[in-house]
Amino acid sequence: MKRIFTLAWLVCLVVGLSVARVEAADRPTGTVTVSSPTGQLFPSSIHYVAAATTTCARGISAMGIYTAPYQLAYVVKGAKLDTTLRLPPGKYDTVVQEWDNCNSGAKTHVPVTVQTATTTATTTLALQTANNTSAASSFQTQTNGNLGASNVSKVDIHSLLYPAATTEIYAELQPWFGDKRHMSVGYISWDPTQVDNQLNDMVSRGVTGVVIDWYGPADKTEPTTLAWLVAAANHPGFKILIMIDKGAVTLSPCSGCNPQQTVIYLTKYVLQNYATSPAYATLNGAPLITQFDLDRHFTLDWNAIRAAAPNAAWIFQSAAGFTHTATSGSYSWMNATSTQYGMDYLTNFYNAAMKAPQETAWGAGYKGFNDTLASWSLNRIVGQQCGQTWLQTFAKLNSYYDSGQPLPILQLVTWNDYEEGTELESGIDNCLTVSGSISGSLLQWAVKGNENTVDHYVVYFSADNQNLLELNTLPAGMHSMDLSPYSLGSGSMYVQAVGKPSIKNQMSAPVKTPW
Questions:
Q1: Which of 202, 358, 389, 476 is the most buried (most CB within 10 A)?
Q2: Does pLDDT of 59 surpass 60?
Q3: Considering only CA atoms, which of 130, 122, 208 is closest in space to residue 171?
Q4: Residues 261, 336: one domain?
Q5: Same structural domain for residues 71 and 205?
Q6: Phi, psi for 359 (deg, rounded to 5)
Q7: For residue 503, what are the domain limits?
């Protein structure tokens, strides 16, 4: 009897397992595709659009939305869903589900966060279009391509570099504005308030240090260097270093000295008077010093210079700088006579850098060059291409470096050389315009110009064309937004194209709401 019972039990078990396998194999499968919402941050109203499919021969019975486990907030018959839910502020793991006519179903999780409702303006039109740089507000657009004081993108310049870049970014600074030898740009370079404005502007763009084009302690521009040392001391982490310009040899020589002796004197002066500051930049503990065109204008014994001032880490210029007798590295400048927007020069520089991995490479980012307004003009022009030249310098850099082979330092050429048309201080014009329109509840906008200069869009509502309520931030490439989830009164919509780093932000004209 025991054997008969055991055998019967085994037969039932085998048959049961076989049936289960058949039922599992025959069970229908479904999918739920959610096309809205596509973001995760919303006002109180969230627009859901979804569709479902199934292998069930009898089709889909219904679709629904859960706002929490066992809390079915909406249900509709059929394989399509299009509705708007109003939810209180908070985070939700909503679920869109389908049920078929074969007692099966499928679901998709849609996490959303509902913001606290507000109708209070978050900014103003004047603020979003006003000068937000350290350029003088009185500065006007110049014929050499320098942009007048404007509202520019403060997106971190690091975002133009390869992913996970930790590159230090230095801005090369001219110290001479306010000196009658140079054009007026609306500010005095050695004014402590102006220096603070410039430092804060640099930091807001992701710049980590400044290279001061130095003409020696006897030059009229020396107060600029001293003001920067004071300002940097109040901004921990921000670094300063000196570029000894060829002009320093003639403007600040030591008494009775030849160029060789003067360069030694200037080097020691930097080490004794500036490099003692905690804000001064170093390389492996040695104070960094760069130079501009010293070897082009003077015959120098660099072994003697190094012997006299052994503690300096010298950074030279261009591709040849990597093989210089006294080199610790080389920086890239820009070729003002290039017919390829300097890309040929950069290629030669980075190729040389690849062959000298033991030396420190300084890449370059620049917008162009135009010296037609300079008193020393040679009529050299490298076009800005409405921001494309700036972006191309980063594309070139990124073709050589990545997080596995990082670039140590990037130099911005330049922060404020207005006379040679390289200044980045006032921003870069991308020659772009944004125009909007509304159809029903759909806001749409068109862009005229190169959209690759846009980082993202910000959509605003204004009841008075003065105060702005920020509604949403959308990535470049999107050109529409549904306004139905927002409880907006009569007023106007604005779309702001926020530029890539240091590129001008462009605001649309107001688009009147039709309600």
A1: 202
A2: yes
A3: 208
A4: yes
A5: no
A6: -100, 155
A7: 429-512
